[in-house]
Amino acid sequence: MLGLLREASFRWLWIGRAASLLGMRLADLALPWLLLQSTSSVWVTGAALACDRLAALVLSIPVGVWVDRGSKWKAALLAEALRITATSALAGLALVGPVRPWVTALLLASLGAADVLHIAAFRPLVVHTVGWARLAAAFNLNEGADAVATLLGPLLAGTIIGRYGAGWALAADALTDLLAVVSLLAAGVAASGRQHPEERPYSQPQAAASRDAPKRPGSGAWDGFRYLWRAPLARRLAVAGCLLSTTSVAVGLWGVVLARDELHWDAERTGWIFSAMGAANVVAVLLLGAIGDRVAWSRLFTGAVALAAAGTLVLAAARSVLAVLMGALLLDGALSAAFVLQSSRLTAVTPPDRMARVTVAAGLADDGVRALGRVLAGSAAEVGVRWALLGWGLVLAAASLWIHRWGRFSCWPWAGPSCLGPDRRRSTA
Fold first, then answer.
1. Residue 27 predicted with pLDDT over 60
2. InterPro entries under this entry (predicted)?
């Protein structure tokens, strides 16, 4: 797995992704803290944070078609440039005076546009850089970058907010985006003229598999949705991804509310919760790298969602620092593993010529539930954050039983060995 970092093109791509993720983790604490201070309303905070998905809902389909037909490197660079602009504006407004929620909502919508463009471009870039055979290892390394960012980002954000204010934490976010742009430029130079064997035209088995796949016009804007609707495993993985994303955004907001309003922690201590999640992510990445090739992915996926449910229930009952940290460790470690399993398998079962469109089709549903999840999370927290955590823990427990019933699905021919975990039986879909 670590051998991929010896290749300059992937190393620079990974560094850029790590920098961008660190900035996002700074904002994950800085933005809700800033809005809660400005509005004193959890519902308004949740509604404002939901606006980062609005642009994604509008732009996902045209962005997917454009990225599939054009340069993935240019699309990724454009996404980072847009993100720098929005985060710099947010930081400047926070530093000069009170922040109005509607202005924050507009800038968050711009960040959402940058995110959908980056997501559509990044997965094809990973395939282009490492090939299909090492796709799972690449996803696990990217999740490792997210784990380290989740470990360090909240500690850094909490310290900056506690001493200087949320505006300076957002300014640090903008600096990480600048580093991401520089890294993407270096990755593009290193990968210039390079093409993996898996990127070349289909072999005969791959062509046969493509003929057997759900039919579609090759460049249709709605092609990604048609594929997700007709391919059983891809459809189930997209639904599971929506569930995981809803969990991520809802628990992120509930964690801040639990620490700030229930436990009466300051910003630095609140950062401990998210850093505990980062530590759990590191453990999950290492564990998944060690056992992923020996355990069926469906069993790993079921176990990860079940452990996430357990962590959510622990948080619902937590009254001490130790209990909160234990719940956060269990929840986000399991959630991290579940995201790797879901995203790598969805990428593996997607035909190469539809990669961006399928990615944004799944992302469009994901963006919708993220926006709705933030609004509902804010509303549920108004009733009681512990009841909200308890209810969602039960939802995740039910989801783990649903995933367990999937059985094992065989890999599609273009996926090669990139699927995590052996699949010894034929698909039951």
1. yes
2. MFS, MFS_trans_sf
Sketch the domain layout of the chain as residue ranges. 2-189+220-418
Six-digit token pair at 202?
A: 């289909």
CA distances from 425 to 24, 66, 82, 213, 288 (A): 40, 38, 45, 20, 21
**What percent of the chain lies above the pLDDT cut of 90?**
3
Question: What span, in angstroms and rounded, lies between the C-alpha atoms of 62 and 66?
Answer: 6
Q: What is the pLDDT of residue 83?
A: 87
Compute the chain's Rg from CA coordinates.
21
Pull the structure tokens for residue 168. 């300076």
107 vs 90: CA distance, rounded Å = 7
Neighbours of 230 (CB within 10 A): 13
CB 33 within 8 A of CB 269: no
What separation in angstroms does the CA of 387 have from each of 56, 250, 392? 30, 13, 9
Buried b or exposed e, range 128-145, using 16+ CB within 10 angstroms: bbbbbebbbbbbbbbbbb
Residue 157 is encoded by which pair of tokens? 């954000």
pTM of the model: 0.58
User: Which residue from 77, 179, 62, 177 is spatially nearest to 125, judged by alpha carbons?
Assistant: 77
The CATH code for residues 2-189+220-418 is 1.20.1250.20
Cα separation of 388 and 384, whole Å? 6
Q: How many CB atoms lie within 10 A of CB 61?
A: 19
